[in-house]
Structures are given as structure tokens and as C-alpha cells.
Amino acid sequence: MGLFTISCNSQENQSTVEKQSIHQFTLMDLNGSSFDMSTLKGKKVMIVNTASKCGLTYQYEILEKLYKKYKSENFVIVGFPANNFLWQEPGTNEDIAKFCLKNYGVTFPMMEKISVKGSDMHPVYQLLTKKNKNGYKDSSVKWNFQKYLINENGYLEKIISPRTKPDDPSVIEWIKT
User: Could you list the pLDDT tens digit for every one of the 177 residues in the chain?
Assistant: First the structure.
């Protein structure tokens, strides 16, 4: 974790932002196993909040193709099922795991179901959405399948709209550079 200072118009308005890395987290995956995000050091990471009953659920197929194509080039996708938008992820972790495998052959890491907004927002999403933690910008999760692009050092670099497909040329360019 690195500290840096953001200067405003005057010395009195100076504030310190602690830019935090995603690598600090150890999470639980859909199968109840521990997943240490520090194992992703040196890889570009796409974090995406998912849902099984959303109009954008078809993006699972695109995500899986993208993962298979670029995983040998130090790229990984990490999915976070969430039930924050119109109850579109009502299932248990086991239900979600079965759905993802059966319908889309998902092999990229899928974490346990979490909350991506509100008072019970998961700490990973607190980092992703708060400039004072990510050092990049404040944002909110607009809908299911919003993508956060994390660099090899674990820092947030880009936020991609839910409606933008995972294989959009801007995303592919980011993966390749």
C-alpha cells in the first residue's frame, strides 16, 4: 500500500489518500474455499459483479471466452455474484456455482455471493468505489456486470459500464498493453 497526497487549491485543503491494492484481500469462493487475492500479483484482473437472472447474464459466455483466450497472458476474471439489483441473484452459493457451470461452463474464479452497494457493501467493493481507498475515482455500481479493471500491482485503472461487453475493443486493448 502506498500513500500519496492530492493537492487542492490551498495547503488547508490538502488531503491524504491511501491507494490500496486489491491484493490485500482473502475471500471465500463459491465452493467455500479460501481465495487469496495476493496470488494475482503480476496479473491484470477484471472484477465483475454477476447475476443469474439478469438481462445481461449472457455476458457470462463472453467473460468465459475472454478468460480462456487471455488467461495464459497473465489475465484473470474474478466474479462476484450479488443480489443488489431487482433480486436477480436469489440463489445460494451452491445454486450459483451449478448455474454458472451448467449454462456457461464458467472456469474463472467466482467468489461467494456478496453485496456490492449499500450499508452492507463488501470491503472489496468499498475499495473499488471509494477514491480515498482506490486512489482513482469515486463510483457506484450501476447494475449487474459492471467491470473493474485492475493492473498487475492490484490497483484500479478503469471502470467499464455494465452494458459494455467484456470483449469490447477498449478492454482487449487494456489486456494487451
Answer: 444 444 444 344 445 678 999 999 999 999 999 999 999 999 999 999 999 999 999 999 999 999 999 999 999 999 999 999 999 999 999 999 999 999 999 999 999 999 999 999 999 999 999 999 999 999 999 999 999 999 999 999 999 999 999 999 999 999 999
Annotated catalytic, 8?
no
**Catalytic residue chosen out of the listed positions 30, 46, 54, 110:** 54
Taking the C-alpha atoms of residue 43 and residue 29, their distance in angstroms, rounded to an integer, is: 19
Phi/psi class of residue 142: alpha, beta or left (left: φ > 0; alpha: ψ in -120 to 50)? alpha
Residue type, 39: T
Q: pTM, whole model, 2 decimals?
A: 0.89
Please tell me the CATH code under which domain 21-176 is placed: 3.40.30.10
d(CA 140, CA 169): 23
Domain boundaries of the chain, sorted by first residue: 21-176
